[in-house]
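Priority: medium. Attachment 1 of 2:
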């Protein structure tokens, strides 16, 4: 039996209190298999005495379920009891306090309307969850080009309470963005470590309150910011946003591979700017046709749906009134709500 089969079994073991598994958190130090005996060494940094035995027991259960394994030896080593961080590859001791599900919106490249998609998706979640007496939020992690405040019509500075920031409120959403912390015309000229620190602060030093779901708007690309976020925040999964043409779909697939390497589940692919609907009801495929659906097939994930190219979407973003709220009966708004319902079912299942 290959060691890969052992690792696959280990990837089903969740770190206690997280949706992420112990393999993606990087705490599995060694794996061996010989004569029916599976040996696993795990190194963690935690001050919670319940974590090591919980992980050990879960690993034993997962490995004993593998037919070829007759004996299991699990060693859990505590590395100093310091607070873990993404830098040492160990699992954090806590997620985002009060937040139940976290969905990242990723694109791989800029110019595909990712932030517009994320804002409208978050507004759709807020409407759906309000009927259940629950709340949603959005975290704008596009550090270099934060646009979420504009699209939600928000400005000013968040309140500070002790060492924590209080998120802004807009359209029934709790909102945090770099755009609240710098002047409008001030560029963010930071290297990787500063970006990583900001993302950590957004997850650990913001009082989000009780949220059923938090949408995270990832910056385009596969660099420091993206890696920092997926290693810092326990994601329930990610949505890939692309436009139909190959220039976008090829880069979206590269972004998906980065997420897969960090064991972030791809919840599906959404195609933005899919078509322009003429007054007579006919559709013009300005950016091509079928790219989003093909991307979903290539990634073996679900095609979530199409968002039309609609001037009202842009106007709503510029005016701080997303189309989901400004015109809920529009084709675009209905598409966003449909995608939100699908994703909510996925993360709750």
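Attachment 2 of 2:
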């Amino acid at each position: 039996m290959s060691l890969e089969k052992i690792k696959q079994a280990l990837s089903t073991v969740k770190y206690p209190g997280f949706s992420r598994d112990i393999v993606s958190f990087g705490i599995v130090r060694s794996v061996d298999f010989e004569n029916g005996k599976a040996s696993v060494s795990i190194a963690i940094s935690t001050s919670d005495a319940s974590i090591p035995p919980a992980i050990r027991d879960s690993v034993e259960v997962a490995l004993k379920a593998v037919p070829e394994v007759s004996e299991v030896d699990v060693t859990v080593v505590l590395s100093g009891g310091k607070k873990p961080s993404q830098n040492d590859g160990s699992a954090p001791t806590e997620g985002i306090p009060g937040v139940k599900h976290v969905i990242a919106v990723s694109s791989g490249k800029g110019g595909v309307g990712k932030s517009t998609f994320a804002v409208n998706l978050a507004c759709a979640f807020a409407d759906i969850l309000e009927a259940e007496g629950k709340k949603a939020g959005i975290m704008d992690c596009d550090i270099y080009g934060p646009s979420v405040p504009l699209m939600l019509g928000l400005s000013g500075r968040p309140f500070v309470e002790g060492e924590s920031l209080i998120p802004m409120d807009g359209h029934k959403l709790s909102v945090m963005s770099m755009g609240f912390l710098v002047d409008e015309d001030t560029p963010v000229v930071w290297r990787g470590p500063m970006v990583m620190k900001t993302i950590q602060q957004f997850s650990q030093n913001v009082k989000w309150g009780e949220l059923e779901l938090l949408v995270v708007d990832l910056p385009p690309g596969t660099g420091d910011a993206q890696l920092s976020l997926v290693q810092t925040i326990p994601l329930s999964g990610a949505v890939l946003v692309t436009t139909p043409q190959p220039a976008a779909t090829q880069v979206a697939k590269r972004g998906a591979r980065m997420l897969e390497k960090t064991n972030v589940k791809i919840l599906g692919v959404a195609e933005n700017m899919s078509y322009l609907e003429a007054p007579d009801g006919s559709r013009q495929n300005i950016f091509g046709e079928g790219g989003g659906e093909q991307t979903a097939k290539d990634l073996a994930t679900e095609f979530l749906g199409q968002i039309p190219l609609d001037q009202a979407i842009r106007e709503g973003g510029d005016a701080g009134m997303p189309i989901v709220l400004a015109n809920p009966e529009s084709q675009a708004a209905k598409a966003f709500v449909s995608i939100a319902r699908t994703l909510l079912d996925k993360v709750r299942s």
